[in-house]
Amino acid sequence: MMEIDGLRKSYGAKVALDGVTFTVRDGEMFGFVGANGAGKTTTMRIAMGVLNADAGEVRFGGHALAFDDRRRFGYMPEERGLYPKMKIGDQVAYFGELHGMTPAAAKSAAASWLERLGLSERAGDHVQDLSLGNQQRVQLAVALVHDPEVLILDEPFSGLDPLAVDTMADVLAERNAAGVPVIFSSHQLDLVERICDSVGIIAAGKMVAVGTVDELRRREGHRILKVEVADAAPGWEQGLPGRVVGTDDDALLIETTDDQAVLKAAMNAGRVGHFGWQEPTLVEIFREAVA
């Protein structure tokens, strides 16, 4: 289990992190979302030991992280940390050796990951000759080559086409299935909603929401019902427990905590053609959380 506990970081008068706290369990995919400058990259850099926190602690397996722990992590920075004039296959194997692999094991793992990521035919090419999307795949191979116990990825899906996004999402899901905690930041909230087990929303250095998408949808205690009633008299919704917040074609959108009372009133008003919860998207949850 990866624990981020009360991280604080300031640069002079600028507060970058203000008590950031969340937990990522074994085999969990955690989506870390926020606007540019919200504190995502700073948090990840502290977790990897690139930066020191002013206060707080990062723990793994119940103890404070040490160098040997981080050596077993896979890290993908937002700015590509690759050597542009080095051959791809040699580069991935080199990073494997930096993590303590033997040359033979590193070379074998590099070849395996390049094949898995669709880059085996480019193994002899230089990084600078690849498209940005393929450079991103190489960066992922570097993060995975040593079979890490934790993955920390900063904007891993940036610049990828839809097929490459699917490939990377499948690889991360495989690592999850093997018990690896995965933390990744992204501005693609529809993707985060689709593949993540839990989500953390950060704004101005503070965690403003953490939980599963379903938990975040319910956190305010109010949910939106979509109710369509055929042949209902105008104003039938007057006096309902809650309030009408909008319409969707011929249906009313009603914010309420008493769905049974709304259903009873709808049935008395006419023939109910549709009745169900209108779940907010992660985009809507994000906008509300950071407002």
Mind explaining what this structure looks like?
- This protein is α/β, with parallel strands linked by helices and 291 residues long.
- It has helices at 40-47, 67-71, 88-98, 103-116, 132-144, 162-177, 189-195, 213-218, 259-269, 282-290, and strands at residues 2-11, 14-24, 29-33, 55-60, 63-64, 73-76, 150-154, 182-185, 198-203, 206-211, 223-230, 243-248, 251-256, 271-278.
- The chain has 2 domains: 2-216, P-loop containing nucleotide triphosphate hydrolases (Rossmann fold); 218-280, 2-Layer Sandwich (Alpha-Beta Plaits).
- A hairpin with a 2-residue loop joins β12 (243-248) and β13 (251-256).
- The mean pLDDT is 92.
Features:
Rossmann fold, 10 helices, Alpha-Beta Plaits, 2 domains, ATP-binding, four-stranded antiparallel β-sheet, six-stranded mixed β-sheet, 30% strand, alpha/beta, 291 residues, 14 strands
